[in-house]
Structure formats: structure tokens, C-alpha cells
């Protein structure tokens, strides 16, 4: 059927982790903390690509600052 115009694209947790250069566990933590929206499909999560792009564009916002301080 192909992609419909305007239909949101969803990424797997592994794809998000690769794009953000973090571990899959970090992505799961962000989803469970409500920092990254996700849709549960069966036993896995799918994350809207637009949400990932927004977080990257914002430089990870407050979450990135907390992460850097804890190192």
C-alpha cells in the first residue's frame, strides 16, 4: 500500500537508540518517565519519529542536563 501522505512514521526502540546514540535501556527509561511519547504494540513500543527529531533538535532539553550532571 505504501506510506500515506501525512501518516506518522514510527520507530522501534532500537532505531531510536541508534539515532540518539544511547542504549535501548535509556530509551525505555525515557518512555516510562514520560519524556518520550510511545505507543505500545503488543509487547513492544513504537516511538513517533517526529518526537525523536524534536528531542534531538532541542538538545535533549532538561533531560540532557540531568544526564550530564550525573556522570
Would you spell out the secondary-structure blueprint of this structure?
Layout: E1 10-12, H1 13-20, H2 24-32, E2 39-41, E3 44-48, H3 49-57, H4 61-69
Antiparallel strand pairs: 1-3, 2-3
Helix pairs in contact: 1-2
CATH class: Mainly Alpha
Q: Which CATH architecture would you pick?
A: Orthogonal Bundle
Q: What assembly state would you assign to the polypeptide chains in this entry?
A: single chain
Strand tally: 3
Please provide the ordered H/E string of secondary-structure elements: EHHEEHH
Tell me the overall shape: globular
Pfam families: HTH_17
Domain Helix-turn-helix: 10-57
Protein name: Excisionase family DNA binding protein
GO molecular function, one term: DNA binding
Summary?
By secondary structure, the chain is of the alpha+beta class.
What does this entry look like structurally?
The chain has 71 residues and is of the alpha+beta class. The chain has a single domain, classed as Multidrug-efflux Transporter Regulator, Chain: A, Domain 2, CATH 1.10.1660. 49% of the residues lie in helices and 15% in strands. The protein has helices at residues 13-20, 24-32, 49-57, 61-69, and strands spanning 10-12, 39-41, 44-48. Strands 1-3-2 form a 3-stranded antiparallel β-sheet. Helix 1 crosses helix 2. The chain starts with 9 loop residues before the first strand and ends with a helix. The model has no long low-confidence stretch (mean pLDDT 85).
Amino acid at each position: 500500500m505504501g506510506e500515506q501522505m501525512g501518516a506518522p512514521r514510527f520507530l522501534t526502540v532500537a532505531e531510536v537508540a541508534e539515532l540518539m546514540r544511547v542504549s535501548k535501556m535509556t530509551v525505555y527509561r525515557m518512555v516510562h518517565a514520560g519524556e518520550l511519547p510511545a505507543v505500545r504494540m503488543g509487547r513492544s513500543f513504537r516511538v513517533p519519529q517526529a518526537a525523536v527529531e524534536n528531542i534531538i533538535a532541542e538538545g535533549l532539553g532538561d533531560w540532557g542536563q540531568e544526564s550530564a550532571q550525573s556522570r
